[in-house]
Specification:
The protein is an alpha+beta fold and about 110 residues long. It has one domain. It is built from two helices and four strands. A four-stranded antiparallel β-sheet has the order 1-2-4-3, covered by helices on one side. β1 and β2 form a beta hairpin. The longest helix is centred in the first third of the chain and has 20 residues. The termini are far apart.
Length: about 110
Amino acid sequence: MLYDKSPMKRWSSWTILAVPLFLAGCGEGAMLVKDSTDGGVVVYPYRAEQGNLLSSFRKEAVRLMEQRCQHGYTIVREGETKGRLRQASPVAGSSDVVEERRWGIQFQCK
């Protein structure tokens, strides 16, 4: 059996492999950014049109707080925090930049 090794076929094969890796690298979820003896701060990305409470990453943030505080936690303060700018296109030389908004939750263990 002969395979067609044309440049377009090679490019599409590379794309099929590269795109999931690129998306996995950009898809940062909830993370604990400050850890203290009695609490900490978790942040997660969200879209303004979706809202912070409906973000799928909020569940991840709650899970992090539950893991950190075995006997429960209290939310001390929450709100939008410093986001980040990232390149939106994996194509080299592209100037598409996306601002990623982040929501922060400061919590204290009970």
